[in-house]
Write a structure and sequence with these properties.
It contains 6 helices and 11 strands. It has about 250 residues and is an alpha+beta fold. It has one domain. The strands form 2 sheets. Strands 2-3-4-5-1-6-11-10-9 form a 9-stranded antiparallel β-sheet. A hairpin with a 4-residue loop joins β9 and β10. α3 packs antiparallel against α5. The model has no long low-confidence stretch (mean pLDDT about 90).
């Protein structure tokens, strides 16, 4: 993959984003029932549909001690017509935007609104992890990506190029407190529902390291801006210059 020297485009004519999300993990002294009620009644999401998620049926005492269950959301506030949802657990709050993507100019203030709602409704929250993720489906007819070799990267084993089915993850450092995991999969090995004619799934996941901790709302918002910038850089590193030039919005 190349390091881009040219200015990255603000947006593509046809974005590849299937889902964009922010996840915040935290500890707070607020009782779960009170916290859930406060968020559900918050002006930002008061009109959203409400539903229980499967984790709600698991006893809270079990969720609390099992690290695989501790951060599962128990409730969802959803606005299906707007393709967005808020998911809430005792130690987690996540915000999801599904296709069609609304653009960073609109998505960014929505994320800051989520951060503000958490700090308004949880008593003295301590943030223990931040995650920012874009899941992209590259499609033949929209993006000109038919196969792995159309990307600006190579996979080789014993000096021979891997040209068939691939599902690979790699993690790189983004800063002292942040790492980035990139997952690349051909459509036959990708999980989840994909748009028709998807050829390659690209999942860019930025997250804080295990020792991260903050009580500062401004620090969380600054991290989101940093994570978005780094996510964009890592995504465009996978595309050739000629692909970017053909797809960028003038």
């Amino acid at each position: 993959m190349a390091t881009r020297t040219k200015l990255l485009p603000a947006k593509l004519r046809h974005d590849a984003i299937v889902e964009a999300l922010l996840e915040i993990r935290f500890n707070t002294a607020t009782l779960p029932e009170i916290f859930f009620g406060r968020l559900a009644d918050d002006a930002s999401w008061r009109t959203f549909d409400r539903r229980r998620m499967p984790a709600h049926e698991i006893p809270s005492s079990l969720r609390e001690v099992d690290p695989n269950l501790r951060y599962l959301p128990e409730f969802e506030l959803a606005q299906p017509g707007e393709h967005r949802a808020v998911r809430i657990g005792q130690h987690v709050l996540s915000y999801h935007r599904t296709a069609p993507y609304v653009g960073w100019e609109r998505f960014e203030p929505e994320l800051y609104e989520v951060v503000g709602a958490l700090f308004r409704n949880a008593d003295d929250p301590v943030i223990t992890r931040l995650g920012f993720r874009y899941i992209n489906a590259l499609r033949t007819e929209l993006h000109g990506i038919r196969r792995l070799s159309d990307l600006d990267l190579e996979f080789t084993i014993a000096g021979k190029a891997v040209a068939g089915s691939v599902n690979v993850n790699f993690t790189i450092g983004a800063s002292e407190s942040t790492q980035c995991t990139v997952r690349i999969a051909t459509a036959d090995l990708a999980q989840g529902a994909l748009p028709p004619a998807t050829s390659i799934l690209v999942d860019v996941d930025i997250s804080t390291r295990d020792d991260f901790k903050t009580v500062d709302q401004a620090e969380v918002k600054n991290w989101i801006a940093f994570a978005h910038s780094h996510e964009k850089e890592q995504f465009f590193r996978l595309l050739r210059d000629e692909t970017i030039d053909a797809l960028k919005e003038n």
